[in-house]
């Protein structure tokens, strides 16, 4: 990779003076050729234009969605060289560390993937690392085109700080339709049914649940669904405000259910990634998996069709609740090519961009005016759910809690998946909650 060009300092404003004739002629010549010159100013390049987009989208579905967006950008701005700076690892498990190093070192990409909510605001905005981008929404008349509740979680002190490219649902159970049909099973709707179906499948020699927790986040993802399924939406939301105690009998119950579910997962789970787990469902090695609807993008990228080879239901016990997260892109202060970054963000916020990306990604558009006919059956059902159900934030994907809190929960999970000690986990989670709830007051 070539070393980035040094950004030029912003042009200074000069006091007004009468311009002598020679200067006016020079300005005239400059204005005549100016359109052919590269733009100057802070964060604007003079050499070849480059746009570096940082994300963790490398798996099937997510990579295709990103590529579709890149294609549109390239067609619109053919002179800008695009750099697809991806760091593999679901949920940003590796990318976030690398991003932090780059941001601390004053070497930001032009724009980066960041979850809407606490991850964006607490990690980057409050720390003064991002530029407000309300102007993009205002200039295009798009302030009314996004759900107010989503704008709220990407805003701070009256300014918007990122463009939400998608909305994902985290609480979905995906299943292999042929396996379920062959064994006369219905997808489970409640947690007791879930355990019953697991037991029935296991009795027939089929591994019930595919899990790929080579990154601990997928275990937390599963627990998140079990927590919502056990507590219901209001008490789950209370976990993030201090209104719901983490050491209550209900939490211990959820942890115990999670521990029972672990008996039914593939034995090589610790070596597998989330997409590897979805592949197990496709291959019929496992019957079902709980994963966010980027899994839907993966099924499709592997040539599968919703309601044919794979089916879905809300994670057991969570019908009527939409556990949401949103991938967004922001404008880091000191972006090497600010102009190209703004063009990227404008594309990401546009109907055209969202309707190119989301059908492949498995997500729904965050804009409310996109073309529904471009989305498949699953996605149309997710659109309806988002509109009518109770929305709660995903903790695994940056919406519910600050990254420090999330990291501390993940540490507890790393121990819990080994010792399955529900009492210890509940007590540890309660202690962490006390610290972070206090800090946020
Ligand atoms: C989530 C992200 C999704 C998808 C998933 C797996 O955190 O929001 O867009 O990429 O990780 O990598």
Characterise this structure.
- The protein is 45% helix and 13% strand.
- Strand 1, helix 2 and strand 2 (80-86) form a beta-alpha-beta unit.
- The two termini are 44 Å apart.
- It has 441 residues and is an alpha/beta fold.
- Residues 56-57, 62, 90-92, 168, 274, 294, 325, 327, 397 line the site of beta-D-galactopyranose (GAL).
Please give a handful of descriptors for the protein shown.
18 helices; disordered N terminus; 441 residues; alpha/beta; binds beta-D-galactopyranose
DSSP strand count: 14
Task: Extract low-pLDDT stretches.
Answer: 1-42
Strand content: 5-15%
Number of helices, counting only DSSP H or I runs of 4 residues or more: 18
The gyration radius over C-alpha positions equals 24 Å
| Structural class assignment | alpha/beta
First and last CA, distance: 44 Å
Ions, cofactors and other ligands present here are: beta-D-galactopyranose
**Adjacency order of strands in the biggest sheet:** 2-1-3-13-6
Shape: globular
Overall average residue pLDDT: 91
**What kind of sheet is the major sheet?**
5 strands, mixed
- State the helical fraction: 40-55%
């Amino acid at each position: 990779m070539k070393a980035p060009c040094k950004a030029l300092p912003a042009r200074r404003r000069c006091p007004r003076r009468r311009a002598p004739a020679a200067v006016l002629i020079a300005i005239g010549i400059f204005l005549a050729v100016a359109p052919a010159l590269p733009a100057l100013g802070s964060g604007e390049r003079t050499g070849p234009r480059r746009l570096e987009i940082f994300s963790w989208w490398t798996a099937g579905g997510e990579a295709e969605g990103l590529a579709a967006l890149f294609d549109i950008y390239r067609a619109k701005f053919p002179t800008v060289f695009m750099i697809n700076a991806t760091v593999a690892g679901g949920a940003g498990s590796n990318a976030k560390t690398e991003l932090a190093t780059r941001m601390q070192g004053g070497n930001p990409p032009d724009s980066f993937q960041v979850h809407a909510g606490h991850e964006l605001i607490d990690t980057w905005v409050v720390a003064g690392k991002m530029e407000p981008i309300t102007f993009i929404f205002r200039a295009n008349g798009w302030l009314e085109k996004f759900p107010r509740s989503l704008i709220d979680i990407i805003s701070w002190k009256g300014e918007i700080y990122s463009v939400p490219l998608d909305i994902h649902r985290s609480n979905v159970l995906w299943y292999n339709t042929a396996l379920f049909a062959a064994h006369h099973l219905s997808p489970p709707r409640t947690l007791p049914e879930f355990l019953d179906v697991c037991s029935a499948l296991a009795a027939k020699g089929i591994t019930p649940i595919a899990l790929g927790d080579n990154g601990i986040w997928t275990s937390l993802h599963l627990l998140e669904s079990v927590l919502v399924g056990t507590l219901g939406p209001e008490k789950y939301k209370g976990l993030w405000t201090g209104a719901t105690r983490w050491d209550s009998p209900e939490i211990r119950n959820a942890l115990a259910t999670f521990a029972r579910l672990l008996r039914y997962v593939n034995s090589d789970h610790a070596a597998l990634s989330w997409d590897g787990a979805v592949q197990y469902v496709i291959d019929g090695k496992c019957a079902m998996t709980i994963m966010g609807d980027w899994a839907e993008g993966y099924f499709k990228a592997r040539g599968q069709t919703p309601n044919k080879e794979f089916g879905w239901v809300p994670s057991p016990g969570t019908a009527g609740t939409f556990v949401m997260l949103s991938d967004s892109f922001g404008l880091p202060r000191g972006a090497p090519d600010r102009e190209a970054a703004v063009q990227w963000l404008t594309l990401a916020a546009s109907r055209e961009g969202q309707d190119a990306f989301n059908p492949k990604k498995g997500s729904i558009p965050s804009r409310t005016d996109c073309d529904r006919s471009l989305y498949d059956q699953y996605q149309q059902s997710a659109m309806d759910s988002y509109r009518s159900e109770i929305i709660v934030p995903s903790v695994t994907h940056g919406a519910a809690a600050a990254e420090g809190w999330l990291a501390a929960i993940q540490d507890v999970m790393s121990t819990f998946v080994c010792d399955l000690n529900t009492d210890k986990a509940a007590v540890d989670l309660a202690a962490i909650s006390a610290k972070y709830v206090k800090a946020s007051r």
